[in-house]
Amino acid sequence: MLPLLALAYFLRVRDTDGCGAQRLARLLGLAVAGMVPATVQAEPLNVSVQVPLDCAFETGSGGALSSGLIDFGTTGAAAGQRITAVGTVYVRCNLLSATPYVRLDYGQNANGSQRRLVGPSGFLVPYELRMGSAAAALWDDQPHSIGYGASLSQAVPIYGVITALPSGLPDGGYTDLVHLQLDY
């Protein structure tokens, strides 16, 4: 009501024939004499939003992880040599206060807690996954905190280590599939 009163006053001051406020009041269906409110009532307006914590592995097109490949590459390493590789997965949370934990299973070809790549004719290559560096602690199947809090997206490096390449392996590709789980 107050803005209309100010507009009506502005029109009256600007209007040369003195009828601008009355024309405006008639146009708006108001009586000029009754434009000043008798009382003003104030009410609070509560405004809120709930933001639930949500974390996920970042994905690329098609819903696949945007990263997460650990590729030991094509190797000419001799039997018994150590081979390392690193892959990175990204965790995104909508709140910096999140405390996400990542866990990895032992893979499809494991023997107990020993992860293994499987190749042609079922030949197996034992390997390890480690946290932080190729010499750091092993990733077991327990949840491990990833130290979140610096940004909404956190890189989680996973180091692969073939401690000693077995002898007598046939040519071909060797693979395993490890499932990642995100707890928060």
TrEMBL record:
Keywords: Capsid protein, Virion
UniProt keyword annotation of DNA repair present: no
Annotated InterPro entries: Spore_coat_component, Spore_coat_U/FanG
Sequence ranges assigned to domain Spore coat protein U/FanG in this UniProt record: 44-179
Any Pfam family matching the protein: SCPU
Keyword Transport: no
Protein name: Spore coat protein U domain-containing protein
Species this protein is from: Novosphingobium pokkalii
Organism placement in taxonomy: Bacteria, Pseudomonadati, Pseudomonadota, Alphaproteobacteria, Sphingomonadales
